[in-house]
Amino acid sequence: MHTSALVMFSGGQDSTTCLAHALSKYERVETLGFHYGQRHSVEMDVRLDVREKLRAGFPQWASRLGEDHVLSLDVLQEIGGSSLTDDMAFALQADGLPNTFVPGRNLLFLTVAGALAYRRGIQVIVTGVCETDFSGYPDCRDDTMKAMQLALNLGLERRLRIETPLMWIDKAQTWQMAQDLGGEQLVELIVKDTHTCYQGTRDVLHDWGYGCGSCPACDLRAKGWQRWKATQAS
């Protein structure tokens, strides 16, 4: 019986939905964020506020929300070459992947999360990776998650589970999951308090949340919102 979870929590829409999912399911939930030399720190700035608003606004989850951890993986910035770590325009690379892909990021995240879960006695790692609405990142695939789970179990001699609640749903369904978990209150929190925009724009509030409105992350979030709203109207 799994009773504890470590949520990889960036402060964005997906990780906040995953945190709500974990809080509804596990008795003890801790969160983990990373500084990896990202171009802006907006998500890292909002994540603690999101945690506290979840604690205050959802008393049924308050006692379950445990410690927050922030770890540094600046080596990803040192490697460079990504528009998330370097000052460059968003574009497709020669291999067909967008240059928002940070090679090895999720592999490193999961390895470090596994080590922290080991030390904290936590049984489940929850991450918001997804194969349905994504940019083709190979480290978001279900096969990658299964391989990483096996590697962690072998390398740590622990039965850790990697849980991916969003793996097979699109952004519209992610909005619906938030509503199912926490009603309109959680949807409003995600709109107003989370941040996903690659540009770090925080001065324009759209129906779906803050952002520049044109980067790939904003485009994905906005289109998901529109599809979700259309299903509600029908």
Automatic annotation (TrEMBL):
The keyword Zinc applies. It catalyses: 7-carboxy-7-carbaguanine + NH4(+) + 2 ATP = 7-cyano-7-carbaguanine + 2 AMP + 2 diphosphate + 2 H(+). Pathway: Purine metabolism; 7-cyano-7-deazaguanine biosynthesis. It comes from the Bacteria. Zn(2+) binds at residues 197, 212, 215, 218. GO terms for molecular function: ATP binding; ligase activity, forming carbon-nitrogen bonds; zinc ion binding. Its EC number is 6.3.4.20. GO terms for biological process: tRNA queuosine(34) biosynthetic process. Binds 1 zinc ion per subunit. It holds the Pfam family QueC. Coiled coil: none annotated. NCBIfam families: 7-cyano-7-deazaguanine synthase QueC. This is 7-cyano-7-deazaguanine synthase.
